[in-house]
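Weekly puzzle thread! Below is a chain. First person to post its structure in token form gets bragging rights.
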Amino acid sequence: MIFSIVGIMWLQGYWIYSSWENKEEEFSLSVNQSLQSVAKEIQEREINDYITAYQKLIDSVGTPSDSNFTDIFFFMDEDDTSNLSTFFAYGILQEDYNVNPSYIDPSIGEKQTVSDYKKVRTTAIISNEIFNRENRMVSTIQKLKRVDRLNAFDQVKYREAFMEYASTLPIHRRLNNPELAFLLKREFDEKKISIPYEFGIYNGGLATRIRSNNYHEIREGPQYSTPVFTDAQGLSPYELVVTFPDRDRFVLSSIFGVAGLSLVLTVFIIIVSTSAVYQIIRQKKISEIKTDFINNMSHEFKTPIATINLALDAIGNPKVLNAPEMISKYANMIREENTRMLTQVENVLRISQLERSSSMMEFESIDLKELVDEAISHVALIVESKSGYVKTHFTNEQALFEGNQNHFLNVIINILDNAIKYADGPPQVDVYIDHVDQQLELKIVDQGIGMSATTQKHIFEKFYRAQSGNIHDIKGHGLGLAYVKNIVDQHHGKIKIVSKKGEGTKFSILLPQITAK
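Winning reply:
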């Protein structure tokens, strides 16, 4: 079970880690694609602006000073069914203008002419059956001519020149913050990246004026970069850098739902498994305790039963029948052993009844002093037979409390009985009744063998007995003090124990005190 739990935890951790890495890679890929798109669009916009300005300058001049076709292509297509032939002519028209290019930008420099290029397409449809009788030349049925701008050609021809010129300008004249911010936001929105970011353009590792308002030299969070305004070889001193301070939080939020559910289920499995292991260990311990209890109970019953059998056999002896004093002696012995067995059975039944009964005890006003004296009278003969004593130390104040007389009498008897059984030699027991903050404190102090700290922690548990090797050397069944604790709790009292190995034990019971009416 533990191996399975560890395996599940490892797999869940590995899955979450893999999901985290995949989301980070996906995020990085989206950001890099966005930055490359922005860098490309920035550069294309700049070149298009130059071409547009150049074209407007040509258009404003009007008629060119010189023009000629640089390239001409001819195509012929005949249609036999209609006796018509189509003649196609394509050409590139170069028009030269006496215009100073510095009108676009003074930094460009001066040239003699500015050239414009156009593509010219002419289509002529002729009939094979129509002739001119004088020179026998065919006559044209339809002639179409179209002149278009060579925008793509213009861009290819002038792109490198524009790029070389633009590279001499400072970055803030080629780009501004609002334009860059708009392009970044548009690209990130398309990629569904909706977390805060900061951007800036660096020139050889040094910050430029193009940056966001909160961008700092010390960059917070992961950063992504791409070159901008590259030359024909793809090189550029400028680098667009974007940082995401909250990237980890964004990535975590994307897997939080499934990862959180996975963690909850894993924790649930761990709790259930731990509880199962705990219950197994607990049931095993209870089984061992009950086995010890049954064995000890059998041992406790075996001795009085054997004694009774011996006494009955003795009474049946003809010699004893003629001796009344011997019969009386054996009869008393049978009665004592029978009472002993009955007491053991009552202890077991009493605990079982308390656990199963849901009805409240009937309480009445009880004098604790009288109850202690009655309990002492029950054990007086045993104490005397062992040459011991039980002394009381009472004050003159009344000691009244609300309780059940029979049950609380058994509480005191049980504690006294333990003091007698676990005495190392003649039992020496002192009983005190004190008044503490409107409460009665009953203290029963013995000079017995005492108990260890471990035993004190479990002494009020059912079936628990301090182990000393042979279970039959341990007197009782581990039910007396469990019964004591139960009764004291039902009387709204508290019981404490102070003991030290070899120095005796002190039981202290606190009960709510009542005043006499």
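Puzzle host: Confirmed. Bonus trivia for everyone else. DSSP finds eleven helices and 15 strands in the chain.
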